[in-house]
Amino acid sequence: MIITTTTTDHPTTELPEDPFTEGPSATRGSITVTGPLEPGFDHILTPEALEFVAALHDRFARIRCERLAARRERRARIAAGEMPHFLPETAGIREDANWRVAGAGPGLHDRRVEITGPTDRKMTINAMNSGAQVWLADHEDSLSPTWSNIIGGQINLRDAIRREIDFVSPEGKEYRLGDQTPTIVFRPRGWHLTERHLAYSQPGGSRGTVSASLVDAGLYLFHNARELIARGAGPYFYLPKLESHLEARLWNDVFSFAESRLGIEHGTIRATVLIETLPAAFEMDEILYELRDHCAGLNAGRWDYLFSVIKLFRDRGRAFVLPDRAQLTMTVPFMRAYTELLVQTCHRRGAHAIGGMSAFIPNRRDPEVTERAFAQVASDKQREANAGYDGTWVAHPDLVPIAREQFDAVLAGRVNQVERQRDDVRVIAADLLNFKIEDARITNAGIRANIRIAVRYLDSWLRGQGAAAIDNLMEDAATAEISRSQLWQWINQGLVSDEGRPIVRERVEYFIDKYADELAEEPGNRAADAAQLMKELVLGEEFPAFLTVPAYDRYLK
Ligand SMILES: CC(=O)SCCNC(=O)CCNC(=O)[C@H](O)C(C)(C)COP(=O)(O)OP(=O)(O)OC[C@H]1O[C@@H](n2cnc3c(N)ncnc32)[C@H](O)[C@@H]1OP(=O)(O)O
Ligand SMILES: O=CC(=O)O
Ligand SMILES: [Mg+2]
């Protein structure tokens, strides 16, 4: 194989020659627990596990900061007029037809339906009994990262993996695992997030930030990697919110280091990378390449992708303004282009292409809502299966058979269609950047819907629930990001709604208060904080890069 690029010749560049033999100058920091110890936490936060997480910090904390700085630099260049583009310096990787990724690990060949959801004890058991092939156990978009949820989630994962999990609800309903359970793929928090209930100290007393990604992935690997392998699967990850192939390289280095440290074979860990930012869509081949020893596939994370487009171009003028959220479907030109390119890229490299999440969810108490959700989800999954995807996500157990039916119809007895090449796809940069939408509208109803959804979602998140059914749609951190970033953009671009109403701070503020007031009677509500946070996110001059950052730093208890 001939690769004509400098970025590929990386003996994991930031590391010494034998990257996993610590040199005399290696930092030996330590991690201490500053959060409260709830029942069972001591079994997860053991001295050995904390030492492992500290070793990850010694090695990778600085590089993480560099990668985050690179995100800020790129965004500044885009604000100044640069457009995202395919990188000339990595053309060799894209043009070389000869390399492939490791592909699916044991238990991961059949990913027709993947149920996603947070790791609380009841939902863990429900997801494991859902009939899906995979459970995406989520510490990202659908999990509010309270200390209880984060370490409680690790307890539940440990117990689920060992089949030692049961639960009795306050109403007395009993939950236990059935015989057939899905392969678990764990999604740690993204590189931008920190964990404030742990402290990282370096020799000499200096303190460093604790990366939420390294905590989540580190604890999961430490407690479960060997057990998963012994049970015929492996430690598998979904990697969220990557913005470049260098971030993929960082993950790859983390995995290689962890494998070496835990004494498991190189390449045992498998990752599926979410392509959910616009810059990452320009680096899909490079991301696969960086992670090739550990990579199982890519996923089209549609909601964060939309958020990324809005965020990147928020101050670039009206040509970059997207219409009401309801009009941002998967068939608008830029979404179709990115999802088609993803399948083509994956299958060329032997990687799975996994579809995304339709936000329509059933309501067991309302047959009409359920019927509409089933129809919407069926059509979304039919489109994905026909496009060549190997599997897809669902948000709710009742959607598993609906999605499965669509994939089974196309796969006709096979468990994936990785061999199907989409040589017909011709996507160029202009297609990924074609933000024109026919009959685009920004309506008063669309503005109010964004405000209502975001306020309600923030209230839910601050109460510790990171996914919520709002008006029969699944809302999570990614969908709420779209709502709040659209509002910020529409205000700052001085837009007027289709009905002729200027979109101004005073009016948006009025509705924030109105929708927060609607929640004020609910027991345990966080409506006042949600309104305050929403005002910061939407009415401020500054645009916080992620809503979860100020929400976590200043509002989450
Ligand atoms: C942009 C992205 O990243 S998408 C991926 C991230 N988002 C998600 O994962 C969302 C996952 N989905 C959910 O969290 C939930 O479906 C919600 C919050 C949207 C709705 O949940 P509920 O209001 O509890 O729905 P509903 O009452 O219909 O649930 C019925 C049963 O199914 C269970 N259930 C619903 N969704 C899930 C799920 N995703 N996983 C496991 N169990 C589930 C509920 O726990 C409930 O169980 P019970 O009958 O034993 O009490
Ligand atoms: O994580 C998935 C998304 O759509 O965002
Ligand atoms: Mg996402």
Keywords:
disordered N terminus, binds the ligand O=CC(=O)O, binds magnesium ion, alpha/beta, TIM Barrel, glyoxylate bypass, binds acetyl coenzyme *A, globular, 4-stranded parallel sheet, 557 residues, Malate Synthase G, Chain: A, Domain 4, single chain
Can you describe what's shown?
The chain is α/β, with parallel strands linked by helices and 557 residues long. The protein has helices spanning 41-44, 47-79, 91-95, 121-128, 147-161, 212-230, 245-262, 278-281, 284-290, 302-312, 333-348, 367-387, 400-411, 429-432, 444-462, 477-492, 505-519, 527-539, 548-555; strands at residues 30-33, 113-118, 134-138, 166-168, 174-176, 183-187, 198-201, 207-208, 236-239, 270-275, 295-300, 352-354, 392-394, 468-470, 473-475. Helix 7 packs parallel to helix 9. The model is unreliable at 1-25 (pLDDT under 50). The ligand O=CC(=O)O binds at residues 141, 274, 276, 301-304, 356-357, 478. GO terms for molecular function: malate synthase activity. It comes from Gulosibacter macacae. This is Malate synthase.
Task: Detail the topology: elements first, then pairings.
Blueprint: E1 30-33, H1 41-44, H2 47-79, H3 91-95, E2 113-118, H4 121-128, E3 134-138, H5 147-161, E4 166-168, E5 174-176, E6 183-187, E7 198-201, E8 207-208, H6 212-230, E9 236-239, H7 245-262, E10 270-275, H8 278-281, H9 284-290, E11 295-300, H10 302-312, H11 333-348, E12 352-354, H12 367-387, E13 392-394, H13 400-411, H14 429-432, H15 444-462, E14 468-470, E15 473-475, H16 477-492, H17 505-519, H18 527-539, H19 548-555
Helix pairs in contact: 2-6, 2-7, 4-5, 5-6, 7-9, 10-16, 12-13, 15-16, 15-17, 15-18, 16-18, 17-18
The chain binds acetyl coenzyme *A, the ligand O=CC(=O)O and magnesium ion (MG).
The site of magnesium ion has 8 residues, from α10.
